[in-house]
């Protein structure tokens, strides 16, 4: 299965010059066989960056019309954007996104022909299996088996994001097993096996290879380290 390394730039960088420089450096050096690199910059930079697969960090739950300030899945598709991140914990926390909003956005994205990077993960102290099962079941409600080919699941334990406390490969493996069990109950074992699962949370060039080797994941979702070109390129190369 092709590996997927996704850069989530979040609300960075502040100038287009910095965005262009960062993108250019990654584009030049981050080509590795059997690995797809996807850059998810802020919306404003999406139409301006060319030469690598792109994803947005969010979409509107509405398709078109009187929704000031929103960006539609159809508009992104029209710009040849390939992926969209949906359900990131920062959106759940700071913008009150619920499993129901996440579900609406996932269906909207799939209907528009975008691929979805569906983020799930427990907060510190929460019971992982229960949370993951609930987020997956509600987030994927009414998503058809045939649409699951376009869905990638990203396990990002909230306590590991931006903290430097990355999840151990053992814990990651157990989360992957739990995710697969829920997918089996919803879609059967073949779809569960074919659905790509990513890990995200304090990934850097020192720990990245370990996840791909021993964490049973098919790729990584990178925040902070994706803003440092050398670091991000080293992570991409660690998939080899
Ligand atoms: P960090 O890599 O900065 O921990 O962020 C992970 C993340 O939230 C990616 O979506």
Overview of this protein structure:
- There is one protein chain.
- This protein has 240 residues and is α/β, with parallel strands linked by helices.
- It has a single domain (3-237), classed as TIM Barrel (Alpha-Beta Barrel).
- Helix content is 39%, strand content 17%.
- It contains nine helices and eight strands.
- An eight-stranded parallel β-barrel has the order 1-2-3-4-5-6-7-8, surrounded by five helices.
- Helix 2 (73-78) links the parallel strand 3 and strand 4 (83-86).
- Helix 1 runs parallel beside helix 9 (229-237), helix 4 (99-112) crosses helix 5 and helix 5 (128-139) crosses helix 6.
- Bound molecules: 1,3-dihydroxyacetonephosphate.
- Residues 8, 88, 156, 161-162, 200-203, 221-225 line the site of 1,3-dihydroxyacetonephosphate.
Question: What are the secondary-structure elements, in order, as H or E?
Answer: EHEEHEHHEHEHHEHEH
User: What's the end-to-end separation, in Å?
Assistant: 13 Å
Rg over C-alpha atoms, rounded to the nearest angstrom: 17 Å
Q: Number of DSSP helices?
A: 9
Question: What ligand species are in this complex?
Answer: 1,3-dihydroxyacetonephosphate
Beta strand count: 8
Structural class: alpha/beta
Q: Which CATH class applies here?
A: Alpha Beta
Order of strands across the main sheet: 1-2-3-4-5-6-7-8
Mean pLDDT over all positions: 97
Percent helix, as a range, is 25-40%
What is the CATH homology-level superfamily?
Aldolase class I
* Overall outline: globular
């Amino acid at each position: 299965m092709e590996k997927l390394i996704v850069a989530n730039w979040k609300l960075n960088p502040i100038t287009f010059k910095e965005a262009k420089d960062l993108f250019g450096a990654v584009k030049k050096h981050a080509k590795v066989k059997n690995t797809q690199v996807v850059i998810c910059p802020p919306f404003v930079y999406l139409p301006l960056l060319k030469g690598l697969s792109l994803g947005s960090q969010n979409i509107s739950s509405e398709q078109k019309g009187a929704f000031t300030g929103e960006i539609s899945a159809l508009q992104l598709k029209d710009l040849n954007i390939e992926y969209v991140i949906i359900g990131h914990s920062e959106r759940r926390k700071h913008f009150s996104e619920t499993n129901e909003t996440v579900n609406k956005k996932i269906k909207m994205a799939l209907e528009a022909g975008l691929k979805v990077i569906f983020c799930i993960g427990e907060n510190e102290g929460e019971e992982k299996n229960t949370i993951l099962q609930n987020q997956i079941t509600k987030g994927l409600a009414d998503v058809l088996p045939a649409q699951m080919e376009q869905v990638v699941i990203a396990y990002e334990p909230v306590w590991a994001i931006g903290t430097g406390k990355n999840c151990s490969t053992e814990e990651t493996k157990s989360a992957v097993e739990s995710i697969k069990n829920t997918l089996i109950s919803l879609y059967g074992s073949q779809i569960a096996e074919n659905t790509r699962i990513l890990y995200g949370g304090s990934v850097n060039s020192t720990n990245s290879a370990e996840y791909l080797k021993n964490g049973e994941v098919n790729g990584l979702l990178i925040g902070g380290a994706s803003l440092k070109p050398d670091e991000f390129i080293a992570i991409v190369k660690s998939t080899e």
